[in-house]
Design a protein that fits this description.
The termini are far apart. By secondary structure, the chain is an all-alpha fold. The protein contains 11 helices and no strands. It is elongated, with a radius of gyration of 19 Å. It folds into 2 domains: 54 residues, Homeodomain-like (Arc Repressor Mutant, subunit A, Orthogonal Bundle); 126 residues, Tetracycline Repressor, domain 2. It is 73% helix and 0% strand. This is HTH tetR-type domain-containing protein. InterPro entries: Homeodomain-like_sf, HTH_TetR, Tet_transcr_reg_TetR-rel_C_sf, TetR_C. It comes from Paenibacillus ihbetae. Keywords: DNA-binding, Transcription, Transcription regulation.
Amino acid sequence: MARHKEFDTTEVLTKAMEYFWRHGYDGSSMNELVQHVGIKAQSLYNAFGGKRDLYLAALKLYVNQSTVIATLEQTPSGKQAIIKVFHDLLSSLAQPEHRAKGCFMVNTCVELAPHDAEIADFVEKESKRVEDAYLLALSRAKEQGELADRHQDLRALARYLNNAQSGLIVTAKSVSDPAVLEDIIRVTLSIFD
């Protein structure tokens, strides 16, 4: 007879995500993860598999919790959607804990994607989803007269915004002056001038 799980899967996965996010894949041992999530090692292995499987499940949870795509797709004004994404990001990065952690997806891209084809593929597909959401917001902005006619290649502009978002997160880890991030956002959003 199968034993009943005595833990909340989402809660355990959230704790694992937070640990990986803070310490990285290579900086996280299974013993540390077991201690952090608060369940027995065998239960963790039975529920999620090994460390890599747990990491991938945590990364998928992170993606599902992100609000960037929803903001870009659902805000009526394309311009306001993009502005909101960058202003929300700036607010988040103003908190030292968030600035130090960065973005779990960006961290994964840097740490694991170069030597793990499956994770690289996952990161690329998720990045494309964000790019497509930027494209949708830019298309609305263009239709609503919020974007200058000089911007014809909206796909390239969506790629630029996606990269600016990731770059801002990386830059925030190494600067203490919030004016630096504000300048980057001001220049990024000058696409609407």
